[in-house]
Structures are given as C-alpha cells and as structure tokens.
From TrEMBL:
It comes from Commensalibacter papalotli. NCBIfam families: bac_cardiolipin. SUPFAM superfamilies: Phospholipase D/nuclease. GO terms for biological process: cardiolipin biosynthetic process. InterPro entries: Cardiolipin_synthase, CLS_N, PLD-like_dom, PLipase_D/transphosphatidylase. This is Cardiolipin synthase. One of its GO terms (molecular function) is cardiolipin synthase activity. The chain crosses the membrane at residues 17-35, 47-65. The lineage of its organism: Bacteria, Pseudomonadati, Pseudomonadota, Alphaproteobacteria, Acetobacterales. It is a multi-pass membrane protein. Could be a virulence factor. Its EC number is 2.7.8.-.
Length: 478
C-alpha cells in the first residue's frame, strides 16, 4: 500500500511539473508571436493577458483566431506573379487633378491598380432590375462567366441563375463559381451541390470541416462579382436570393443597389475574381483570352479596390479615410451596418467640425439585432460633434454607397463596420464622375426618413444602455 501511494504521489508530481512547463511554453509562444505579428496593440495586450490567465485555452484560441495565416498564404501564392501585366499594356490611364489628386495618388500607390478611362457605370436597383440584366449577360456568354457571391440561395432565383450558368457551360464558355463558405450555408450548401452535379466547377471560399483549418471560419468573402466574356461586369451589394425581388413581396424583403460596368474597368474586375479563384483553388486562369481588347463605352474614370486580411489588408478603409480627410463640402454614406472603429469615426467627426456636411444613412432596423444594439454606442460621438444620422424605414436597405463633395463616389460590397473593413474580403469601385456622383448622392438623400437625435440615445433606459455597451465588445466579429 505504501508503494502504491508513493507511486500516485510521484505520478501527480510529474504531471504537475509537465503541465507547469507546458503552460510556461504556451505563454511564451503567445507573447513572442503576438508581439511580432499582431499589429493592433490592444489585441496584443488582450491575447497576452488572456493567455496568462488561461494558458491552454488562450493558446488554442490565439492559434485559431489570432494568427493571420491568410496573409502568409496570400503572400506565398502571389509573390512574383505579374497579375497586372494584361491591364497596363492595354488601358488608357487617367491622372486626377484638383483637390482629389492626393486621394488618386495614394490609392494607386497601395493598390497598384491604375485609374482607367472610357467606362460606363449603370445603377441597378434591387433584384427586380438587376437580375434580368445579369441573366441576359450570362445567357449571351460565349467565352467565360465568373461569379462570386456571399449568398447564393437554392430558391427560385438561385435556381434560375444556376440553370443559366449550366447552359453557358454547355455552349462552351468557361464557368467558375465561388461561394462563401458561411453565407450560403456552412454545413450544407444545396446550390453548390446542384451546380457540381451539373458539371459546374464550384468552390466554397476557405471552407473546411477540418479542425486545423478552423481559423478560417471567421474570414468570409463578401464580394459580389459577375463577369461575362471580359466585356461586361457587375458588382455592388446584391446577393442572389428571392428576398431581393421586391415585386414578389418576400417575407423579409431586402432593398439593394448594384452596378453594371462596361469598358476597360471590366479587366480589373476580371482580375479581382481570378485572383480570388487562384487564392482558393490554386487554378491559374489569368489568361489573355479572358482579357479581350477593351472598348471605350463612356467617359467615366474608375478603379477597382479589393480588401481583405491578406495582402490587401484594410485598403478599402484607407481609401474611405483619405477621401473623408479631403472633403470640403459634403460626405454622404449609406450603409446597412454602421460600426466603424475609433479612427474612422474620428475622421468623420473632424470633417463635421471643420464645416463639412456629414450625413450617415442607416436602416431604422437592420436584419442583425446585435448590430443595432452595438451601433447605439458608436452613434453618440458623431452626433455630439455635428454629424447627422438618418434612419431609413423598411424594407431593410442593404446598399453600400459613399459620395464626397458630389464628385467622387465609392460603391461596392463593403459595409462601414469593423468586420467588412478588416476581416471580410471585399470589393469596391471608386468613380470620378460628377453626374454619377450626383445621382448616387440624390438617391441616398431620397431615403432620409427620420433624423436620429442625441436626446433619443441618451434617454434610453439604463438596462438598454448596459445591453448596448456589452454588445459593443463584440464589434470586431459582428
């Protein structure tokens, strides 16, 4: 019996020492790795503090959500690849003059994409107007159809798109479809299965059930891209689902704004899709046949800007912030979710203080209750410093639009929240065209229903303020 107790004591002693050494090693790893690779100081302090308190749990969570494997993967795949060679040899580039010159120069510097002349951008409202035009383009495809969507539902609308893609491939067109691994269903994606059964090559963006690939569960492609034959393209906020066809009176209608583009800018849109496709599948489709000689379709000057937690980190956010800093008269932003970080908010407030008319247009009630609670806290500072926040009545408006001085426009898939501006893979387009900017600006202005006041926020019950403040802690993941 004495020998038995001695064995148990030695075993426990060895286990305690092993666990102590293990905890020490894990803590050191998180400290050194986060200090070297995590850019946000507060995030670094948070990870280190959490791991000091709970070493094993902290290490596991840090390994899953704190390590940017996506950036390493992107840099490894894209290094020394001449993605822009097709563009620069064929396009007429444009040089901006006037007070937006610094914006154009800065964006060209960090995107390495030129401003292109000779484009036409047409506004499409809701699925009622956009879907028939998109389907007409797919049905006329001869060379290629590239589609990327956050949501592609297996409803009547999704099936119509799927069948058109299938027919395009039967005609000999190269068809590729990229669907987000979360937005269209994590555990089961019927539309992807339907397309695959009919011979369409489909992939789900960074989707895996494998535990060691779970870090990617928080990273989503929020892009909406359709390119046909390298000649016509579509981008904006519109997903593909019945809920976007308002004439059908869906149970939860979603109003949205999409854009058809023609001219040389379609080359940049094509390239953006093919980069994503290569990133996810390693299939290199950056071929000359997908970049036909561009035709001059209008006089708009445009540039595509992509962003994500890879080599494009926060480029959409930087573009918006630079535009805000250059504003002289007006800034108008329409977004379904308004939850930017403090730097973004501070720039908006500084613009308002120096006399710029700053208007934020958001839904009275979005489709995400947690977002609505969290934004109440964020809205206080801009209201205190002179920004105007307008509420839009139903149906829920999902448009993502920005206009500065009624001259410069910024449209695409990115919401003005921390998820879109840092974690999601997004695509936007800047447009230097006064007439187009005035159209977008007036469109946003027509949706202003009720002005949110500081008193309304401050007079909320104490329990609501506590709820909102607590929800705000989830900002990076909402």
């Amino acid at each position: 019996m004495h020998v038995f107790y001695t064995y148990l004591f030695l075993t426990d002693f060895k286990q305690d020492w092993f666990l102590a050494i293990l905890r020490f090693i894990l803590i050191l790893f998180v400290i050194f790795h986060s200090l070297r690779h995590v850019r946000d100081t507060r995030a670094t302090i948070g990870w280190i503090g959490f791991t000091l308190i709970m070493p094993i749990t902290g290490f596991i969570l840090y390994s899953m959500f704190g390590v940017n494997r996506v950036m390493r993967r992107a840099q490894k795949m894209f290094n020394n690849r001449p993605w822009h060679s097709q563009l620069l040899s064929n396009m007429t580039q444009y040089s901006v003059k006037g007070h937006f010159y610094p914006l154009a120069k800065v964006v060209e510097g960090f995107t390495q994409r030129p401003l292109l002349m000779g484009n036409q951008v047409d506004i499409l409202n809701n699925g009622d107007q956009a879907y028939p035009i998109m389907l007409q383009a797919i049905n006329s495809a001869k060379e290629c159809v590239f589609l990327s969507s956050y949501i592609l539902k297996s409803d009547a609308t999704g099936k119509i798109f799927a069948d058109s893609l299938i027919e395009a491939q039967k005609r000999g067109a190269t068809v590729r479809v990229l669907i987000d691994g979360i937005g269209s269903g994590y555990f089961y994606c019927p539309i992807a299965n339907y397309l695959k059964k009919n011979g369409i090559i489909v992939d789900r963006f960074m989707h895996s059930f494998l535990p060691w690939k779970m870090p990617f569960i928080n990273l989503r492609t929020h892009k909406k891209i359709l390119v046909v034959d390298g000649k016509v393209g579509f981008l904006g906020g519109l997903n593909i689902a019945n809920e976007n066809v308002l004439l059908k009176k869906p149970k939860h209608p979603v109003s949205d704004t999409h854009f058809q583009v023609t001219g040389g800018i379609v080359h940049e849109l094509t390239e953006a899709f093919l980069q994503d496709w290569f990133f996810v599948t390693s299939e290199d489709l950056n071929k000359k046949k997908f970049y036909p000689t561009p035709e001059i379709k209008g006089d708009m000057v445009c540039r595509i800007i992509t962003a994500g937690p890879d080599s494009d980190l926060e480029k959409i956010k930087y573009t918006m912030m630079q535009a805000i800093s250059l504003a002289r008269k007006s800034i108008r932003i329409m977004t379904p979710y308004f939850l930017p970080d403090d730097r973004f908010l501070s720039l908006l407030c500084l613009a308002a203080v120096r006399g710029v008319n700053v208007e934020i247009i958001i839904p009275k009630q979005s489709n995400q209750q947690l977002v609505d609670w969290a934004r109440n806290i964020n809205n206080i500072m801009p209201l205190q410093l002179g920004c105007k926040i307008w509420l839009v009545n139903p149906p829920f408006n999902h448009s993502k639009l920005m206009v500065v001085d009624r001259v410069w426009s910024f449209v695409g898939s990115s919401n003005v929240d921390m998820r879109s501006l840092r974690l999601n893979f997004e695509i936007n387009m800047e447009v230097y065209d006064k007439e187009f900017a005035e159209s977008i600006d007036d469109f946003m202005g027509s949706h202003r229903d009720k002005l949110l006041t500081l008193d309304a926020l401050q007079q909320r019950p104490a329990i609501a303020k506590f709820r909102d403040a607590t929800t705000r802690l989830l900002l990076p993941y909402l």
